[in-house]
Design brief:
The complex is a heterodimer of chains A (about 325) and B (about 250). Chain A contains ten helices and 15 strands. With about 325 residues, chain A is an alpha/beta fold. Chain B contains ten helices and no strands. Chain B starts with a helix and ends in a 6-residue tail after the last helix. Classes of the chains: A alpha/beta (about 325), B mainly alpha (about 250). The interface between A and B is medium-sized, with 32 and 28 residues.
Chain lengths: ~325, ~250
């Protein structure tokens, strides 16, 4: 199967401040899959994407996109992929309809076809009532949807989306995921998606790579990555007043692997020992927690584990 | 096919740039008229009555000032601010050439300068009371002068590190081209140093050609100026296109 994207030993250091944004990245995106880059802010995801679309020159390593060497010939990839830029400042003055239609025309669509696809996209994205408004008159979420329209038009082979739903409400986000999945399943479009939302990753991705501090930490399907967290169960605690008693945190660390993030404490443990963890909480008193939940490991656990935040280990 | 695609893309990009003037058009058109008109009145009312030769100098000078104002100052500032905001990222990932974008930016600004120099030309002609000749030579002189100015404005915008730097440089450039070059006066009336300086300024040849065209002189009289303008426009366009980097790093 041909690879849509092949990075080998890809590194990027910004000369201005000597920051190593990507370090020896080796990853492959197969044609026809929805591939994600997951990682915290500053991990190097956008740096990687900008090298893929030809906006940034790598410092070292190799990078091929749809069979083209991007480093030697960055212009060649621009006709093979559609990129949803986070920055549409250059077209802030255009109407929503114009941004989408002109993008289609510049990608080679005839006037009639561009108008037809624009009409369909405006309806599918739910922004037809805003079609004649200028971009700068819109809220952040609507601007993002207009950017989507500009990226979707023209039947791309490879679609590159950089944090595409960050400003969208839940309903619009779901709609967009459906559209991305439809493009992938019906038209075989390969998608490279940058996100820091594990929920988005769980819903959409066939495979993903977790990047942190410029390095590739893990790569695989969501199921494969979750198995790295074993078959352990997950006890998620929302502490009262922002934190658990120190003694409880220490004791929990003795029975399982403990993470702390987003004002929650997560304990991963086998079935037998998880009962001990629940018992410990009861011992300290249920007043010290606001809520708790028990379930199987999630992609969030994989993400948190590789992203740090371990307080103890079994 | 490739050529057809190039022209089509340039036209579409031109339409995208012209759309900006829905919001800025009236203000920019007013500024495009006021600056040269103000200069015209200042010179006219401080220098008293004017000869026919002086009148052509003033009229041609104001048309050049109008072009400098829109094609260097406005364009340089726009591109500098756009570059600082990474606005060109949108175009950089589309299958369009840099030359298409540069031509679209230049042509849209040249179009923007039209109200300015038409108004200045008409009002100047009415106030100065001279016969003016508007023919193919005049349009050629104006277009080539505008193209050269627009290349300079684009170069300022592209090479500036920030939008503010582009603003400052383009304002300085405007001052240099208007007052330190023989736009409002014959080159021979300038000190020797400024005469030499004037000979390497594109506005000198632009003002010469426009002045001669307005006076109804045959094209052969100012053909040399047109050829120099064409060469300058071609060279500066090539430099600008190569200078734009789609890819950082």
């Amino acid at each position: 199967m041909q690879m849509a994207i092949e990075a080998s030993g890809l590194s990027k250091t910004y000369k201005k401040n000597n920051v190593k944004a990507n370090i020896e990245l080796n990853l492959q995106v197969q044609e026809g899959e929805i591939f994600g880059l997951l990682g915290p802010n500053g991990a190097g995801k956008t740096t990687f994407v900008k090298q893929v679309v030809g906006l940034l020159k790598p410092s070292s390593g190799g990078l091929k996109v749809m069979g083209e060497d991007v480093i030697a010939n960055p212009d060649a990839v621009r006709s093979r992929l559609n990129y949803m830029s986070q920055n549409i400042f250059a077209v802030w003055h255009l109407k929503v309809r114009e941004v989408i239609e002109y993008s289609g025309r510049l990608r080679g669509l005839s006037l009639g076809e561009a108008k037809k696809q624009t009409k369909i996209l405006l309806e599918e994205l739910g922004i037809e009532e805003h079609a004649e408004k200028a971009i700068f008159h819109l809220s952040g979420g609507l601007r993002q949807l207009a950017g989507f329209g500009a990226a979707f038009i023209g039947k791309p082979k490879l679609l590159v989306l950089d944090e595409p739903t960050s400003a969208l409400d839940v309903a619009r986000r779901r709609k967009l995921w459906d559209k991305v999945r439809e493009l992938n399943q019906k038209e075989g479009v390969t998608v490279l998606l940058v996100t820091h939302s594990v929920i988005e990753a769980e819903h959409l991705l066939d495979r993903l790579a977790i990047i942190q501090d410029g390095r590739l930490k893990a790569m695989g399907s969501p199921g494969e990555l979750k198995q790295r967290v074993d078959n352990r169960l997950r006890l998620e605690i929302i502490p009262h007043n922002g934190g658990l008693p120190g003694g409880l945190t220490r004791d929990l660390g003795q029975v399982g692997e403990v993470f702390e993030a987003n004002n929650r404490v997560v304990v991963l443990a086998s079935r037998g020992t998880l009962q001990k963890a629940v018992g410990l909480v009861e011992q300290y008193g249920l007043d010290c927690i606001d809520d708790f939940r028990i379930g199987t490991a999630s992609l969030e656990d994989v993400y948190l584990k590789l992203g740090g935040g371990i307080l103890g280990a079994a | 096919m490739v050529l057809r695609r190039f022209f089509l893309n340039t036209l579409i990009l031109f339409k995208m740039q012209v759309a900006l003037y829905r919001f800025l058009g009236l203000f920019t058109a007013i500024v495009a008229v006021l600056v040269p008109l103000g200069t015209l009145f200042l010179i006219l009312f401080t220098s008293g009555s004017t000869s026919e030769e002086h009148a052509y100098l003033l009229l041609a000078g104001n048309i050049v000032v109008s072009l400098v104002n829109t094609c260097i100052t406005s364009l340089g500032q726009y591109i500098g601010n756009m570059k600082e905001a990474r606005g060109f990222e949108f175009y950089a990932t589309l299958p369009v050439s840099k030359l298409s974008l540069v031509l679209a930016l230049m042509c849209s600004n040249i179009m923007l300068s039209l109200p300015g120099f038409i108004a200045v030309g008409i009002l100047g002609w009415l106030i100065l009371g001279i016969q003016i000749s508007i023919g193919p030579g005049f349009f050629l002189a104006v277009i080539l002068t505008a193209a050269t100015m627009a290349s300079i404005g684009t170069m300022i915008g592209v090479t500036s590190k920030t939008g503010q730097q582009a603003n400052h440089i383009s304002l300085v450039a405007m001052f240099v081209f208007i007052f330190l070059a023989p736009v409002y006066y014959q080159i021979e009336s300038l000190p020797l140093v400024l005469q030499w300086w004037g000979r390497i300024q594109p506005v000198t040849y632009g003002a010469n050609a426009i002045r001669a065209a307005l006076a109804g002189l045959p094209v052969s009289v100012y053909l040399g100026d047109l050829i120099i303008l064409l060469a300058l426009a071609t060279v500066s366009l090539t430099i600008v296109t190569k200078g734009i980097k789609w890819r950082e790093g």
